């Protein structure tokens, strides 16, 4: 009773609900728990520790039912690997997404998140990607190396992981709540002290990287808490917003997107610190002299890369990086027929999978279709850049930057407000400029065909 009163008082003091406070405390606890994982001897105990601490923190944060939810896709994926290895990847993909969609519909978590609540679906989203990638990589273990992409060769599993290895990978608390998603092969190498984590990892101190990530998390949360009262999402349907002029409404859309992103930067910075301190975030050494350890395996966002993106094509490589990598390896690349180039279909299909993974709200679906249009439009400008003189190319490059800034922040309103009414109200308030502009660029790309790249002509002349 006293503890509940303390939680109520603490939650009220920082302006969040008790469930969110409980989640934040468990989320922060992943850092010391991950630190202690470094000292667990032997791979079996490491797997046991990863699975046990992940399940315990989930129980404290979300309640007993959370672990029952996790068991469904985990056991479905493992059963498919045992019973039907040649099809286990596709079976697990559809079963995992079917269960996740069911939970999205049942909990309607987007509404809860908008109201300051939280539930288990965020952690279930991360778990679903892990389960699917493990099954697909085990499926790939049947294939011959010739003809496989580099990522397939690196991540494929020849042998079925044991149940404790599998549970440890799925529930590893450093990435369990909010990612990043990483590969089973890397997790096994880390637990067993193989590959990068054998002799090459010795002398690589994680403390500098951890402190950097924590300082980044503190800055991001402070900025978010400062900005959010000034740019509430509810304003898009308020009469005062409709009274503003076009440029003020467009500016408000930019500031709303800018403000919301700092919350994600905070969450991913905490996850990054947790994975780095465990040692799993190690990704090799720099080529500098003396060499320095790299800790970017856990990096999920490049803040400056997002805020100053030169074009929309780079956004997936700097935002939610590990999920973008997952989508590229397990959706985008696998939809491209052998010997063919990827086109708009692969891009749209990948963005649709990403939208469904987030939830079935109209705002998500509209945002990811918008993202596909935004990237396709940016590619057109980039192709034009490559075929003109440097002076004109610089102008087009700046135009691509402005285009990305406008369309990204216009599009992400749908991701934030979720409902169809609010999404269309905000888009309509700026005359759908962020939808019309990419479509005009895509159509213009068919009419104004770029010539051969100027740089390659210059090389030929040399």
Automatic annotation (TrEMBL):
It holds the Pfam family MBOAT. It is a multi-pass membrane protein. It is found in: Membrane. Keywords: Acyltransferase, Membrane, Transferase, Transmembrane, Transmembrane helix. The chain crosses the membrane at residues 12-36, 56-76, 88-108, 120-139, 160-178, 213-233, 264-285, 361-382, 394-418, 430-448. GO terms for molecular function: acyltransferase activity. GO terms for cellular component: endoplasmic reticulum; membrane. This is 1-acylglycerophosphocholine O-acyltransferase. It comes from Acacia crassicarpa.
